[in-house]
C-alpha cells in the first residue's frame, strides 16, 4: 500500500514484532505479529468457513504482489528495498533511498498497476468461466474469484486516493514537482491529503464508521510526517557533512577502562566516544554501551569489549541529506573521515541544532527581505 524509507542499520530487525517469512528476488518479506492476530480473528469470525479465510489470504497475496511492484520498479531506478512488511492495514515496502520525482511517479504507479493486471486477469477468467468454457476453475466458486476481483479494484481505488502515505499522494507530489520545487510540492500534496483525511474522518464520525476514522487518522499523521520530513530535507539541501559536523569532541584509547569512559560521559556533554588505537578508529562507545559495560563487567572492564564495532563513516564532502540516511535506529553518531583521519562527528543533536539554525536564518531572510 505505502512506500516508506528507513535508515536502520543493516541486519537489524525492522520491528521486534515482525518475522521474516520468505524472500523474493532478495527482498525479505516480513509478517507483522498483528497480522497473524488479524488472521486468527478473521478465522474465528468466519466460523470455520474456509472460503472467507482463504479470500483474506488471497487478498494479502495481492497486496504482497502490489508491494513487489513498487520494489522491483524501484530496483530499475537503482533503489533497493530493505524489506516488505505485511500489516493488517496493508503492506509497507521500505526503500533504501529517496527516488527522484520522476522515478517516484513510476514506482508509486507500479503498485496499483499490479492490482489492475490481477483484476483484468480475474475478469477474463470469470468471463470465460461464465461462458461455460471454464472447466479448469469449475471447482472454484465463482463468488471467490468475483470477491477477489472486487478486492483488487478496491486496492487500486484506495491506493490512488491522492493523500500521503497512499500511492496516490506520491503520484500527486511527483506531478506537482514538475511545476514547483519539491518541498513546496510535498507540502501542497500533504495539505490536500490532510484536508481529505479531515473530511473522511468527519464522515466516519457522523456515519459511525470507526474503520474510516482510523484510516483518516493514519492518513493525517502520515501526511504530516511526510511534510515535516520534506521541510527538514530542504534545510539540509545544498550542505555537505563538513557544514554540520561537530569538530570538537573527545576520543577514548582502546585500552581504557569503562570507568574512564563513565567519567568522560559525566564531565561533558558528549554522549558517544570514538574508540581509537593511534589514529585508527576501532569502534564507537555510546552512552548505552558505557552503561551496559558498567553493568556487566564493572568499572574495571575494557572499553574495547563493549564498543560498537560497526562504525558508520562518511567523507566530509558527502551531501548532508545522504549522510543522515546512515543514522541507525540506535542514534549512533556518524564519523567523518578524511584521508584516513577522523576529523568530525555528526550526531542527532548537532544535526537538530543545524536544522534549527538554518530555520532561523531563513526566517531572518524572510522578515528582512534580503538574500544572503
Ligand atoms: Zn502501494
Descriptive report:
This protein is of the alpha/beta class. Helix content is 54%, strand content 15%. It is built from twelve helices and eleven strands. It has helices at residues 33-45, 50-76, 101-130, 142-159, 167-176, 182-206, 210-236, 241-244, 258-267, 287-297, 320-323, 348-368; strands spanning 2-5, 18-24, 27-32, 81-87, 90-95, 252-253, 273-277, 280-285, 313-314, 334-338, 341-346. Strands 1-5-4-3-2 form a five-stranded mixed beta sheet. A hairpin with a 2-residue loop joins strand 10 (334-338) and strand 11. It starts with a strand and ends with a helix. Mean pLDDT is 81; it is low at 5-13. The structure holds zinc ion.
Question: What attributes characterize this protein structure?
Answer:
binds zinc ion; 372 residues; three-stranded mixed β-sheet; alpha/beta; single chain
List the helices and strands and how they pair.
Blueprint: E1 2-5, E2 18-24, E3 27-32, H1 33-45, H2 50-76, E4 81-87, E5 90-95, H3 101-130, H4 142-159, H5 167-176, H6 182-206, H7 210-236, H8 241-244, E6 252-253, H9 258-267, E7 273-277, E8 280-285, H10 287-297, E9 313-314, H11 320-323, E10 334-338, E11 341-346, H12 348-368
Parallel strand pairs: 1-5, 3-4, 6-7, 9-10
Antiparallel strand pairs: 2-3, 4-5, 7-8, 10-11
Amino acid at each position: 500500500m505505502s512506500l516508506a524509507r528507513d535508515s536502520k542499520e543493516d541486519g537489524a530487525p525492522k520491528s521486534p514484532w515482525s518475522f521474516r517469512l520468505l524472500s523474493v528476488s532478495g527482498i525479505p518479506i516480513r509478517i507483522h505479529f498483528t497480522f497473524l492476530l488479524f488472521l486468527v480473528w478473521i478465522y474465528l469470525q468466519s466460523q470455520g468457513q474456509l472460503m472467507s479465510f482463504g479470500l483474506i489470504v488471497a487478498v494479502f497475496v495481492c497486496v504482497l504482489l502490489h508491494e513487489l511492484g513498487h520494489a522491483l520498479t524501484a530496483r530499475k531506478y537503482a533503489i533497493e528495498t530493505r524489506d516488505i512488511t505485511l500489516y493488517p492495514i496493508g503492506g509497507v515496502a521500505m526503500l533504501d533511498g529517496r527516488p527522484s520525482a520522476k522515478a517516484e511517479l513510476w514506482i508509486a504507479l507500479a503498485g496499483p498497476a499490479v492490482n489492475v493486471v490481477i483484476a483484468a486477469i480475474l475478469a477474463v477468467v470469470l468471463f470465460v468461466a461464465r461462458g461455460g468454457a471454464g472447466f479448469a476453475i469449475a471447482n472454484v466458486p465463482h463468488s471467490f474469484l468475483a470477491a477477489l476481483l472486487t478486492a483488487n479494484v478496491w486496492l487500486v481505488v484506495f491506493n490512488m486516493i491522492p493523500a500521503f502515505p497512499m500511492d496516490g499522494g506520491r503520484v500527486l507530489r511527483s506531478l506537482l514537482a514538475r511545476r514547483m520545487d519539491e518541498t513546496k510540492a510535498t507540502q501542497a500534496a500533504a495539505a490536500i491529503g490532510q484536508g481529505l483525511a479531515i473530511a473522511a474522518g468527519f464522515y466516519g464520525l457522523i456515519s459511525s464508521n470507526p474503520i474510516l476514522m482510523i484510516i483518516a487518522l493514519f492518513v493525517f499523521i502520515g501526511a504530516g510526517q511526510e511534510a515535516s520530513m520534506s521541510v527538514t530535507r530542504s534545510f539540509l539541501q545544498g550542505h555537505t557533512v563538513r557544514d554540520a559536523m561537530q569538530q570538537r569532541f573527545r576520543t577514548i584509547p582502546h585500552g581504557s577502562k569503562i570507568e574512564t569512559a563513565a567519567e568522560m560521559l559525566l564531565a561533558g556533554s558528549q554522549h558517544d566516544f570514538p574508540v581509537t588505537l593511534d589514529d585508527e578508529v576501532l569502534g564507537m562507545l555510546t552512552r548505552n554501551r558505557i552503561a551496559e559495560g558498567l553493568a556487566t563487567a564493572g568499572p574495571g572492564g575494557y572499553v574495547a569489549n563493549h564498543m560498537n564495532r560497526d562504525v558508520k563513516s562518511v567523507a566530509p564532502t558527502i551531501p548532508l541529506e545522504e549522510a543522515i540516511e546512515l543514522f541507525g535506529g540506535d542514534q549512533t553518531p556518524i564519523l567523518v573521515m578524511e584521508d584516513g583521519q577522523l576529523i568530525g562527528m555528526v550526531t542527532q543533536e548537532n544535526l537538530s541544532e543545524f536544522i534549527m539554525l538554518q530555520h532561523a536564518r531563513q526566517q531572518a531572510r524572510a522578515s528582512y527581505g534580503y538574500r544572503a
